[in-house]
Backbone:
């Protein structure tokens, strides 16, 4: 228990394959995935994980059909109103990573409600990456940094890694210890490019709707058996 990751990030993948396996529609796979979201939030809180970041919708996911995209945002709103009471009661502070202004108006409103309502909670930080892309985050950071340089608030010589990280969406969550991806794919899919620099990666074959606390614990045990060297020697 003393070697827990402080920050866990999760690529919640495999809803479509789960639906196919069960002879259901893709959207039903997304619906079924909501139970797993609840499990992982609860599991992380019970273990005392400080930060959990969930990949819910990428900047590339707009390529999907209008029907699927609308269903995903509808499900998100439904999830918020069903779970917010419990999340708030448990002292969880919700954060957002991504391009907020690019979200549908209703999603903006519901997400904002969630952020405002949980703003002062301190038990755990739970970030949702929604309309999030790792490259978009770096570009957005570079734009704001360039504007500050232009306006004389920072000089090129002052830009080091710590200074750059202050321009990320959540500077306080800039280091991920453990990345978990469900459903077997060995890729990052444009998630947290800066923050994953030295993360331990655990890929589980289980489809996201079947992901339970047990899988979270297995991933943490795998993490605890890793030898994190950060480029140095033991
Ligand atoms: C992950 O499940 C959910 C989102 C990307 C929003 P997928 O819909 O990608 O499921 P697969 O990868 O097709 O199985
Ligand atoms: C990554 O899953 C994005 C989310 C889980 C939100 P995708 O299913 O979109 O990723 P690819 O297409 O397999 O890379
Ligand atoms: Mg997928």
Residues:
């Amino acid at each position: 228990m003393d070697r827990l990751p402080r920050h866990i990030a999760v690529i919640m993948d495999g809803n479509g394959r789960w639906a196919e396996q069960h002879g259901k529609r893709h959207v039903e796979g997304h619906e079924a995935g909501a139970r797993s979201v609840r499990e992982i939030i609860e599991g992380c809180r019970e273990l005392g994980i400080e930060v959990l970041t969930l990949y819910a919708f990428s900047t590339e996911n707009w390529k999907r059909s209008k029907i699927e995209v609308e269903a995903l945002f509808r499900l998100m709103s439904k999830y918020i109103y069903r779970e917010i009471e419990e999340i708030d009661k448990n002292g969880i502070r919700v954060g957002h990573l991504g391009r907020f202004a690019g979200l549908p108006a209703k999603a903006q409103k519901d997400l904002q409600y969630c952020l405002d309502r949980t703003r002062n909670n301190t038990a755990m930080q739970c970030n949702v990456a929604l309309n999030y892309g790792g490259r978009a985050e770096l570009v957005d950071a570079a734009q704001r940094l360039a504007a500050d340089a232009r306006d004389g608030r920072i000089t090129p010589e002052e830009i080091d890694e710590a200074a750059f990280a202050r321009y990320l969406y959540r500077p306080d969550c800039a280091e991920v210890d453990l990345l978990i991806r469900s459903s077997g794919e060995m890729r990052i899919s444009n998630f947290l490019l800066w923050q994953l620099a030295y993360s331990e990666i655990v890929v589980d074959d289980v489809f996201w709707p079947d992901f339970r606390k047990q899988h979270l614990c297995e991933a943490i045990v795998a993490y605890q058996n890793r030898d994190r060297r950060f480029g140095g020697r033991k």
